Each structure stands twice: as C-alpha cells, then as structure tokens.
Amino acid sequence: MTLKECKKEEKMDREFQKKFKFEGSINVLTRMMVDPATTEKRGGGKNLPLRRGEILDVIQFTNREQILCRNSQRR
C-alpha cells in the first residue's frame, strides 16, 4: 500500500466517524456477503447501496434491524 492510498483510507475513516458520530477506532467485527438472490437497492442518506454478492465489513450491530457496515470502497 502506498502512502497516498494510506492517507486516502485515513480520510475515508475520518469521514465515516464524523458522519455516523462513531467514537474510537474502527474495528471490523466480521464480514458478510449480501444475498446473491436479493434485489439491488440504491443508497440514500446514511443507507449503503447494496449489490448482489458484495462483501461488507460489519463495524457495529446497532439493533435487530440495522447494522453499521462499510463496503470495499470504505463507504
């Protein structure tokens, strides 16, 4: 990983923390795949767009219906 890529990832992490008011370091709890049979959904506001078969990093389980995740583009 180059220095430029490192700085870009750090910037994305800071934006993530600011947007979701997330304090502390970002630790990935687990990874999960979006169901390949599901319909693709557009994101909006704080919702992540979902694509079939995409791998997501789970950051926090917020409640029974919502999970704080990020995709491979660190969004």
From TrEMBL:
<dbReference type="GO" id="GO:0005886">
    <property type="term" value="C:plasma membrane"/>
</dbReference>
<dbReference type="InterPro" id="IPR029294">
    <property type="entry name" value="hSH3"/>
</dbReference>
<keyword id="KW-0597">Phosphoprotein</keyword>
<dbReference type="GO" id="GO:0007229">
    <property type="term" value="P:integrin-mediated signaling pathway"/>
</dbReference>
<dbReference type="GO" id="GO:0072659">
    <property type="term" value="P:protein localization to plasma membrane"/>
</dbReference>
<dbReference type="GO" id="GO:0050852">
    <property type="term" value="P:T cell receptor signaling pathway"/>
</dbReference>
<protein>
    <submittedName>
        <fullName>PRAM protein</fullName>
    </submittedName>
</protein>
<feature type="domain" description="Helically-extended SH3">
    <location>
        <begin position="16"/>
        <end position="73"/>
    </location>
</feature>
<dbReference type="Pfam" id="PF14603">
    <property type="entry name" value="hSH3"/>
</dbReference>
<dbReference type="InterPro" id="IPR043443">
    <property type="entry name" value="FYB1/2-like"/>
</dbReference>
<dbReference type="InterPro" id="IPR036028">
    <property type="entry name" value="SH3-like_dom_sf"/>
</dbReference>
